[in-house]
Amino acid sequence: MSKGMQYWSDHLSAIAAEGVQTKAYARREGLSVSALYYWRKRLKAEQSMQAGAVSVTSSTRPFIPVQLSDAGAFAPCSLLLAPGVRLELAQLPSAEWLAALGAAVSRQVR
Description:
Layout (H helix, E strand, L loop, with lengths): L2 H16 L3 H8 L3 H18 L26 E6 L2 E5 L5 H15 L1
Antiparallel strand pairs: 1-2
Helix pairs in contact: 1-3
């Protein structure tokens, strides 16, 4: 982590540890509120990337566990990848395939 990232991470950790509002902390420390919010978002994104999380947009919904009966295992399915982008499949793919697709789409969006 760079010096700048560490600097802001320390401030954000102090906010969480103290349980104070970001605006109050910024005023007390003479920091920009918008800079604190920016770094909070940036560091969270950095942590997500390091953890290998799949993130297409900031409003990405996480995968939801689904159980299917054997009768529906070969039913056609549709995946909505983005507004106006739909993938039609003859059957539900494996969880591994879906995770790989999510990772590939995430790399393309950035």
